[in-house]
Amino acid sequence: MAVPEDSTPRNPPGTCETGSVPTLAPVVRATTTADLVVASIRDAILAGRLQPAETLVERRLAEQLGVCKTSVREALIALSAAGLVTGSPNRGSVVREPDAEDIRQAYELRGLIEP
Known about the structure:
Elements: H1 33-47, E1 55-56, H2 58-65, H3 69-82, E2 85-88, E3 92-95, H4 100-113
Antiparallel strand pairs: 1-3, 2-3
């Protein structure tokens, strides 16, 4: 008996082409409060609302953002690892000032990207 073209067998939803192993949805990274604080502070730095050499006070940032100091502290550690802020014990965190090498690298990258 011939099978009409429009009724060809299809894999059930949630299975691979072989039909043996169900497919999994991509894992969505959970967004923590610290991640949201990182994004907010990063945006403020890049937009110039937080100036180079400006001291970042955890308590004040926590109040402004409506979060706990722990989330701010975690965010500042992440931003320090990303190179946007510098931190030192007993002195707090400061928005990092770009040096001549940073500016040179930015212009090199810009030259590669722009025609």
